[in-house]
């Protein structure tokens, strides 16, 4: 016998996502001297944050990890709780079911399926944008509205889609003649979309986008990404 990293045998590609979740959980949270195959059913949220961060950096191959605000958004998502503070979440435990069994409210997928979709999209199409900190990514639609509603016309930011797996969307503010503001969200771009035309070129195409939040002219923020990508690869 020999000790090895955990492995999962699958018979169909549609089991791949679940297998990756099983290996990740086992790798991160099992004890070295455990009874074979036994792993904790619930783990501290703080440990989960470290695991998601390491997985994200390794998968995307970036030195820019997740930030405190990102963890807060992810906690709200996995616990389905928008009233708790960042500190409240630090004292909680997250279960395997919350991570990879329970469907997110109003969605057709689990937390892990959503997060893995973000990983895949970022790795394939958004690595350089993420590494340049041009994508906020992990932020709710509601909080984006709050941030942008007081900003000048054409201010925008990029976030990962809540409603689709593996999508990135652009939220921007429009001001009416009466000065009232409205935040619009562009239909999310998938990896397939970004392989046809890169994110940088799409942003350049959209005349209603002017400044990347908080106040960086879009050509200054994204100029180095215009026309510089082939096949949408970051």
UniProtKB/TrEMBL annotation:
Transmembrane intervals: none
Location in the cell: Cytoplasm; Nucleus
Protein's UniProt keywords contain Lyase: no
GO BP terms: cell surface receptor signaling pathway
Keyword field: Activator, Cytoplasm, DNA-binding, Nucleus, Phosphoprotein, SH2 domain, Transcription, Transcription regulation
Keyword RNA-binding carried by entry: no
One GO cellular component term: cytoplasm
Similarity comment text for this entry: Belongs to the transcription factor STAT family.
Protein name as it appears in the record: STAT6 protein
């Amino acid at each position: 016998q020999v000790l090895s990293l955990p492995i999962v045998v699958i018979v169909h590609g549609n089991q791949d996502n679940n297998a990756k979740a099983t290996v990740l959980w086992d790798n991160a949270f099992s004890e070295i001297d455990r009874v074979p195959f036994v792993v904790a059913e619930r783990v501290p949220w703080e440990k989960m944050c470290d695991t998601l961060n390491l997985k994200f950096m390794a998968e995307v191959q970036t030195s820019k990890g997740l930030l405190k605000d990102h963890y807060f958004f992810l906690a709200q998502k996995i616990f389905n709780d928008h009233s708790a503070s960042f500190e409240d979440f630090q004292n909680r435990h997250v279960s395997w079911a919350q991570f990879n069994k329970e469907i997110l409210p109003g969605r057709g997928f689990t937390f892990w399926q959503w997060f893995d979709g973000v990983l895949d999209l970022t790795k394939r199409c958004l690595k350089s944008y993420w590494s340049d900190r041009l994508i906020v990514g992990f932020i709710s639609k509601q909080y984006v509205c709050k941030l942008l509603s007081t900003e000048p016309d054409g201010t925008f930011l990029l976030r990962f889609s809540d409603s689709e797996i593996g999508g990135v969307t652009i939220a921007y503010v429009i001001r009416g003649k009466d000065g009232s503001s409205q935040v619009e969200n562009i239909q999310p771009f998938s990896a397939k979309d970004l392989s046809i035309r890169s994110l940088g070129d799409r942003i350049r195409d959209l005349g209603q986008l002017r400044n990347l939040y908080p106040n960086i002219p879009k050509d200054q923020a994204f100029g180095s990404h215009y026309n510089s990508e082939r096949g949408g690869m970051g």
